[in-house]
Design goal:
With 83 residues, the chain is mainly β. 0% of the residues lie in helices and 57% in strands. A hairpin with a 2-residue loop joins strand 5 and strand 6. The chain is elongated. The model has no long low-confidence stretch (mean pLDDT 92).
């Protein structure tokens, strides 16, 4: 517990502002959700969080991006979390 978890992405094209919503879907009932706003796509961006006891046995996230009127959805792999 307490280990840092980095979720990174790269959105393009550059020059368009976008928002990304990160929602934790595993374990069931996980309360974590946040929306981040960026002035331009292009470079790699990361969200840094920390693993908690409630994240056992593992975590999984959905990423929803809105850029230039287009919505993109992606689901991360399931990452095992050991107590």
């Amino acid at each position: 517990m307490g280990n840092q978890l980095d979720i990174c992405w790269q959105i393009g094209p550059a020059g368009f502002p976008y928002s990304i919503t990160l929602k934790q879907v595993q374990p069931p009932g996980a309360p974590f959700q946040t929306t981040l706003y960026f002035g331009s796509g292009g470079p790699v961006e990361c969200f840094n969080g920390f693993l908690e006891a409630s994240d056992v046995p593992g975590v999984q996230f959905t990423l929803t991006v809105l850029i230039n009127g287009v919505t993109l959805n992606e689901t991360s792999p399931f990452w095992t979390v050991n107590p």
